[in-house]
Design brief:
With 138 residues, this protein is α+β, with helices and mostly antiparallel strands. It contains three helices and eight strands. The structure holds zinc ion (ZN). Zinc ion (ZN) binds at residues 8, 10, 55, 79, 81, 129.
Length: 138
């Protein structure tokens, strides 16, 4: 597959504003974007560190994926996102290698990226996301 870098690390939090405060005041990072992704039932906040971002995720609905995650496992690292090119081809290749896909077809995630999740049952317990920034080529 050959991802170019870790695009972001997704972290589930109960209170986005309190978490932003910690990342800004204590860690000294700057939140550059807050965005609600209605489809995923989350509110997200982004911080840039080098080529990588931290994506804080607050659930807007206890029945949403992050709400259920926090209920089961508490706050913490939720997923790891790899930057890739040709995301459709990557998904086809992974599927041919027997990797279970949550998204067989990419969808639009935060920041307008094309994203798709791989099932943690196929990736040694880590929820993995592929991200392609198709706008960057323009
Ligand atoms: Zn993500």
């Amino acid at each position: 597959m050959k991802p170019s870098h870790i695009e972001h690390i997704g972290i589930a939090v109960k209170d986005l504003d309190a978490a932003i405060n910690f990342y800004e005041k204590i860690l000294g990072l700057k939140c550059y974007n807050i965005e609600e992704v209605a489809e995923q039932k989350v509110r997200t906040a982004f911080f840039q560190i080098g080529q990588t971002k931290i994506e804080l995720l607050e659930s807007t609905d206890p029945e949403g994926p992050v709400g259920k995650f926090i209920e089961k496992r508490g706050e913490g690292v939720h997923h790891l996102a790899f930057a890739v090119d040709n995301i459709e081809d990557q998904l086809t290749g992974l599927s041919e290698n027997g990797v279970r896909l949550i998204d067989k077809i990419p969808r639009t995630g935060a920041e307008g990226l094309d994203i798709a999740f791989l099932h943690p049952g196929s990736t040694f317990g880590v929820l993995m996301e592929l991200c392609e920034n198709k706008k960057k080529a323009l």
